[in-house]
Amino acid sequence: MSLLCDDFVIGRRKHMSSVIEEKVKQLQGDVITWRRYLHQHAEISFQEYETSDYIENELKKMEGMTVSRPLPTGVIGII
């Protein structure tokens, strides 16, 4: 019985790994775009108002994401 459970768990992990890998591939282009934008629009530390706005807007585009701004330069995204 334990062997069956172990096989199930291993199979489930492999499935989840492939699901995560596929999601990473889907987001790769977006991540590159975000990085380029943020590097082209650098701001002084603790004054990242435009950066925070950008991140908030990008997170709001994601399905199932709850976004809050506890501070002017702080953004929290919860899946």
The count of β-strands is 2
**Chain-averaged pLDDT:** 89
Residue stretches low in confidence (pLDDT < 50, at least 5 long) are none
How are the strands of the biggest sheet laid out side by side? Answer: 1-2
Distance between the termini: 35 Å
Helix-strand makeup class:
alpha+beta
Helix content: 55-70%
How does the major sheet shape up? 2 strands, antiparallel
Helical run tally: 2
Series of secondary-structure elements, N-terminal to C-terminal: HHEE
Q: What gross morphology would you assign?
A: elongated
Using the CA coordinates, give the radius of gyration.
18 Å
Assess the beta-strand content as a share of residues.
Answer: 5-15%
Which descriptors apply to this entry?
single chain, 79 residues, alpha+beta, two-stranded antiparallel ribbon, 2 helices
Describe the model.
Strand 1 and strand 2 form a beta hairpin. The longest helix has 39 residues. By secondary structure, the protein is an alpha+beta fold. The mean pLDDT is 89. Strands 1-2 form a two-stranded antiparallel sheet. The protein has 2 helices and 2 strands; from the N terminus they run H-H-E-E. The two termini are 35 Å apart. 65% of the residues lie in helices and 14% in strands.
